[in-house]
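Thread: "does anyone have the structure for this chain?"

Original post by V.I.:
We have the sequence but no experimental structure in hand. Need at least a predicted one for the grant figures.
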Amino acid sequence: MGETSNAKTLQQRLRQKMTEDREQIEQLTQSEQQRLFESYRKYVDDVLSTIEADIESKAKRLRHSLLRPLTVGLVIGASLLVTICAGSWGVLHLISARVQCQMQRQTALSQEIGKQQQALQQLQARTWGVSLYPSKDGRYVMFPEGVYKVWKANGRMAVQIIREK
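Reply from O.Q.:
Generated one for you, tokens below.
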């Protein structure tokens, strides 16, 4: 019986040793898994932050590369708009000044024509309608009908102008 109890005790100790070893292995495995998990988590976080930083950097460069042509286009467009508006204003101002000048000139010419017509009427009234008539045969003095009489004065031909009242 001594041997059986010895075998039982040995078996019990062996079981207990196996249980302790198994628990120790499980604990070590769990601690190693936890350490690996933390290591992978740290690695993944580092990779993720690197990727995020790269994406942000590339997005920033892309924004700048897209905004630059847009800004240049807007500046060119605004410059063209200002140039067109300023040019249009200048042309409009020039045309209105010319129109105003031409209107003043037309008014002055109309007044001058009126004065000249009055002077012509006064001249015709003073000369009783006598006018000079140039032709290819020579120059002639023209009289209105019924206001002249041909006669001789001092031995020469003369025309007497008779004014009817």
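V.I.: this helps a lot. The mean pLDDT is 86.
O.Q.: and The helical segments are 2-127.
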